[in-house]
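DM from R.C. (forwarded with permission)

"hey, sorry to bug you on a friday — could you get me a structure for this? deadline for the figure draft is monday and I only need the backbone to look sensible"
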Amino acid sequence: MKREQTKRRIQEAAWQLFRENGYQDTTTRHIAEHAEVAAGTVFSHFPTKLDLLKAGFSQQIDHVLTEANSDCPESCPKEKLMHFAGYLYAFYCLEADFSKELFRVLIWQQEEFEKQLEAFRQHLFSHEASYDQHRAAVMMDCYFMTLITGLNADKPDATLMLNQLEKKLDVLQ
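My reply, with the result:
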């Protein structure tokens, strides 16, 4: 129990400092100080700073998806993706600079999140007669292209990103 509390405290401190100072400018020593633990304790829970970032990112996305699931329509894959994208794009746009940095670091860690992505792709097709793996992959590519393009705008706008995603998805229909 105490070990889990310490781990959670480290993860929360890391995520807060990453958001405030950026990933590059946050050291594991700062995280340890903020979590009120020894530097070695951080590494006993998370082997690297990148592992802390991945754990925090995964936890944040899980929270957003849980919220989005609470009122998810039982509809076609496109409508489901649009629903979830509304929540996710808003999350990323809320702190666009941090989100850009986050993706810059995590873009090469995609295999780490493949299990979550595959579960999400299958969820999009949960009310379909069959799971169309290729269509799901293309839909997610559209989602990520729109996200990355939108975050690189001067003023990222979740509504504009949603409109652009919808146009891309309409081409797939």
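R.C.: lifesaver. The domain at 1-47 is CATH 1.10.10.60 (Arc Repressor Mutant, subunit A).
me: no worries. The mean pLDDT is 91.
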